[in-house]
Amino acid sequence: MKNNWDKFSHYFKQQEVPAKTILLAEGKTSRTMFFIDKGCLRTWVNNGGKEITTQFFFEGDTVSSIESFRTNQPSLYSIESLEPCILQTLSQADFQDIIENSPELKKELEEHLFKRLFHAQQLFYTYLKNNPQKRYEELIEQYPQIVKRVPQHYIASYLGITPVSLSRIRNRV
Are 58 and 36 in contact (CB under 8 A)? Predict the structure, then answer.
């Protein structure tokens, strides 16, 4: 998505963060959108002290708690770096200015939101329909970079299983 934003590059600020950096904490209001130049981010929710990973993002992806970013409501999830990252950040005010002055980027944002909704629906239905092994097989088929770059305990959390169960599945696959 960033390429189409290049004419607005003066709005962006580069940020380098080490691994395990919380960029947005669940319950806080999102004021920043992140474009990943290098690295990996994840989103996760806290369920009674247990972290449940909901999504992974890599180079070229855009990440924010878009619901919070657009409505000023508290974020439903946290955003954290899994690797050292180089990010381009965009403030809420600058984003609003760009969207108001660029109908083509407003349309692009709409498409991006539809893709995220579609991805969320796919994930929801795969939890309903598939067993953990089938979910893992689909993950490695659709997103091989996750298996190569993300620690196993985060993948297990994402799949809704324990790390021990994931290890057993990996041995069978």
Answer: yes
